[in-house]
Amino acid sequence: MTASRSGGARGSVACMGAGPAGLLAATQIKKARPDWEVVVHERSPENVTYGYGVVFSDTAVRTIEFMTPSLGAVLASQVTWDDVEIRAHGRRFRSAGHGYVALSRHRLLSELAGQARAAGVDLRYESPVELDALRDRHDLVVAADGARSRTRTALATELGARVGHGTSRFAWLGTTAAFDAMTFIFEETEAGPVVAHGYPHGDGVSTFVVEVPRGSGGAREDTERDLGHWSRVFAAHLDGRPLQAKDPRWAHFPTVRLDRCVHENVVLIGDAAHTAHYSVGSGTRLALEDAFLLGQALGRDDSLATALAEYQRRRMPGVRELRAAGERSMRWFERAPEHLAGPAPRFAVHLLSRASLLPLERIAADAPALVAEAAGLSAEEAPSSAEVLARPLEVAGTRLPGRLVRERVPAVPCAGGRPGEAAYDCDVVAAGDARTRRGPRRRAAARRRPGALPPGPGRGRGGGPRVRRDPAGRRAAGRPGRGRAHRVRRRGGGGHGPAAGAARGGPVRPGRPRGPVRRHLGPGGGPGRPGDGRRRPHRPGRAGHAQRLPGPPGPDRHARPGRPDRRLARVRRGVTRRHRRGSRNHITENQGRGTG
After folding, report:
1. How far is Cα 311 from Cα 325, in angstroms, rounded to an integer?
2. Which of 118, 149, 398, 523 is the most exposed place for a label (fewest CB within 10 A)?
3. pTM of the model
């Protein structure tokens, strides 16, 4: 920073909020810029917190150990566990191999506040401030004032802020009952199912978040605030211990999205900039990462505007994945009453894959017995394919009676001049399946004539000798095909020319009859002799076909090493070219070696 707002060379930074994001951001900025003045303003008294425990995954712990080794050392001595337990329909299911670490929120804030003071940060509790006043007095304002951020509300237009709310109501409670895993509890009440999230975090207290999906029990406000009511609902899981609350408020979880997190000299971090649902346990991790990356950006560049722009460019995409996972998990718990209608094992598997969309194999590695039981139930209850196809389907406001799509193709002429049926059925198939895309064209074949010989050398696809016909269906002059080496591959099958489709029994391709051009393709010598590749004068013949000359096909005399045979390439593509010589139009029927 070249100059401060007061005119000196010393920078000034104000952080709003003494939560995990604000405290760590102040510490990192002070370490990166020791000559700057950094102050933290907090409205609440010191040592007053409104939550119970904070949980981190093992991946988050490794990230924190890298960002702040002192906090990582504290986490190493806290409560750890590996399992997730699901309690529903009177049964309990466990999935191992996850890995979590938890500590009390009070312990976390005390550790971060001690680091800030040791770095030289000025912490001011019970110090409410206004945004405009801070922007005028300081070069940078770090808004870490939580999910209900007043800064975000004041700058909503400038930041492109969009704040929504979940449909479930929740309260952050605690209990002295012991839990040894991340526990999800589902209980039925007279008004519907309710959910609890419980996990240990030390100090003899466990976090116990009660969530009431929309339309479920606890509709009255006095019932929701009655801790005794919820203690009775979850009595079987609390070992008779009562529930306690530091903040008895019930709320709808806010979902925060910003188009930008920086406006002039204000930057938003933590829950003020984004939220992650408590069911995935990543909100505090994202807040700490924000603070660390902001300190790094300010330490790398002397220009404040450049540093903030770089932070925004790198950080905004980084939070989308965890935020999206949190929203998926939140929506799942909001629809928990619908999921509970199924068997308990299948419900448990569904819960484990709610946020990260894990494949079944990954879940089976951690809970093989659970997945095996759920798979067995699904196999027994799975409907037949006919039942599935018969189920109605509603698409874009249109209700279809079933799910089987049938495409009807008009009848086309066949090899014997008789109409053939080319109608075929199509099921719904995965996009990108090349065999399925080519299938209908390959399957549209004419009826085989009675007594036809099986396919073989010199015979067509439907058996029997190949018969060349013109577009009118009349037999054309010329020798039949002499096997695979002289058969030209086209997209619809063998043969070439307008009459080839009818000869194979397929659709007749449009084309006008023209006189053929005779061309010697066999090995030979100079001009005027067979094999020189030159066109011969036109001889009378039947329109719409080419006259074959004896002798095996020869190579293209224009082909060079490293260059493909142009004539054969045209044959494989089935290309027919028109050449004008004088006043006469000709069609070149390309003939060459067939490909095996």
Report:
1. 23
2. 398
3. 0.64
